[in-house]
Design brief:
The protein is an alpha/beta fold. Strands 1-2-3-4-5-6-7-8 form an eight-stranded parallel β-barrel, surrounded by five helices. The protein starts with a helix and ends with a helix. Helix 7 packs parallel to helix 8. It has eleven helices and eight strands. The structure holds cytidine-5'-monophosphate.
């Protein structure tokens, strides 16, 4: 049970320096399913550092590409040389951009690569008012579900969404279409700057495939103990 929970736990290495990220990766080796490298660490440490981290766990390269199809294609082809476990793009880049990205990732897998492609539906930092100011009259959750269906049509392998939306996405797009969910907080812990948090067991019950956890692990006095406590909470879902 612990190993299947472990595979579903993704730790966000939102750390400003490569040395800190490396120390955390060493500490968590064998205890988590994936390490997430976002824009901060990628800009600080670059692609060569991602290779160093891959020794410790598979990598989710969370660079959220959003550009015209040809530019996204070129950028993806470069990062796919690292063969990360997951990469992502913004669904709002449009159907042609998503189809182009999905084709690049399919070609990579046909050549023996492992990477799967996720689409970011709607940033959780965008609430109804912010969407209205952008010209959309949708509720964020409705727009997220619409984007998830479109991402599936366009050949993406899953989405990044709130754990609150994971069930609706699974029902609409099927079990095999992944739901990766940030905004996870262990029971009894502060939400920090996350607005709509879900605890680990509830996120899995809601239909999340992978849980992304950052600061509750990376800023804990004992990151290994915090990881084990989260894995135990995850197991309660089953
Ligand atoms: O520290 P914390 O657990 O809040 O980290 C969550 C991670 O998930 C961060 O890397 C954050 O950028 C990312 N994320 C998020 N909400 C989204 C998309 C990504 O919190 N909608």
């Amino acid at each position: 049970m612990q190993s299947s929970m472990r595979e579903r736990l993704v730790v966000a290495l939102d750390l400003p320096a490569a040395a800190d990220a490396l120390a955390m990766a060493r500490l968590l080796e064998g205890k988590v399913g994936m390490l997430k490298v976002g824009l901060e660490l990628f800009c600080a440490a670059g692609p060569a550092f991602v290779k160093e981290l891959q020794v410790f766990a598979p990598i989710f390269l969370d660079l959220k590409f959003h550009d015209i199809p040809n530019t996204v294609k070129g950028a993806l082809q470069v990062v796919l040389r690292l063969d990360p476990r997951l990469v992502n793009i913004h669904a709002s880049g449009g159907p042609l951009m998503m189809e182009t990205a999905a084709e690049v990732v399919r070609v990579h897998r046909a050549a023996g690569g492992q990477t799967e492609l996720l689409a970011v539906t709607v940033l959780t930092s965008l609430d109804r008012e912010a969407l209205a100011r952008l010209g959309s009259l949708d509720e964020p959750a409705d727009l997220a579900l619409h984007m998830a269906k479109l991402a599936k049509e366009c050949g993406c392998d899953g989405v990044v969404c709130s754990a609150r939306e994971a069930g609706a996405v699974r029902d609409a797009c099927g079990e095999a279409f992944h739901r990766l969910t940030p905004g996870i907080r262990p029971r009894g812990e502060a939400a920090m700057d996350q607005a709509r948090v879900v605890d680990p067991a509830q996120a899995l019950r809601n239909g999340a495939t992978w849980l992304v956890v950052g600061r509750p692990i990376t800023q804990a006095p004992d990151p290994v103990a915090a990881t084990l406590a989260i894995l135990n909470q995850m197991a309660e879902a089953f």
